[in-house]
Amino acid sequence: DAVLELKAVTKSYNQGAANQIDVLRGVDLTLNAGEMVALVAPSGAGKSTLLHIAGLLDVPDSGSVTVAGQDISGKGDSMRTSLRRQELGFVYQFHHLLPEFTALENIILPQLANGIAQRAAEARAEELLALVGLSARAQHRPAALSGGEQQRVAFCRALANRPRVLLADEPTGNLDPGTSDQVFAALMDLVAGTGLSALVATHNPELAARMDRRVKLEQGRLVDL
Ligand code: ADP
Ligand code: ADP
Fold this sequence. Notes:
7 helices; 10 strands; four-stranded antiparallel β-sheet; binds adenosine-5'-diphosphate; globular; 36% helix; alpha/beta
């Protein structure tokens, strides 16, 4: 069953008066529940554009985007924002954790903002930290964590509000190969432990090979690899 579906999605940009570039020319993508899909895209191919549209941060020129069974076509900003907060989690190359808060607090805060009670939020944060092997680091601030640990906490934060879909943009792009492996293993554990689906943009062929499926952005369309 599909948790994220893009159908015939197009997006063009105007770069000056007579210069339109067609970045997405009819993207079809179905992400099923529990599935982890690698998105491979050469630089400039439109990866950010695609992730922004899938993440409901931008709207396509045409085509449809459905998240958790809800089609956003013709819907307003507030509907997209609430669907984004409920159903989508984001991870980037850099962790973007709040430096003055501990790992645990960084995972609790988005839950409090979502109306979850402190005690339940804390239990959820502890459960996620345990899944990525960081229970002993709960009281550390980001600066006291290694790069791999920071990124694992960022995964936990992204999953704090139990989204159905994780969108990850080069989540291991800043890490050395050994740490990348370890962080990726943590992501696999989270997917297994939570039933999450993930679309993971990566340039790392070894990580891509370990996912359920690989798609490549090529001339504005997604092709299976
Ligand atoms: P990637 O993430 O794969 O590098 P992007 O989605 O950022 O690719 O960009 C794809 C193409 O669209 C690039 O040629 C880029 O210059 C162009 N582009 C992206 N955003 C805009 C924008 N807001 N206005 C004009 N052109 C843009
Ligand atoms: P890795 O080899 O995994 O990148 P590091 O060598 O950076 O890890 O750190 C090893 C351990 O020391 C990590 O578990 C990390 O939590 C801890 N650590 C790293 N930097 C600090 C720091 N500034 N203060 C306290 N602990 C730290």
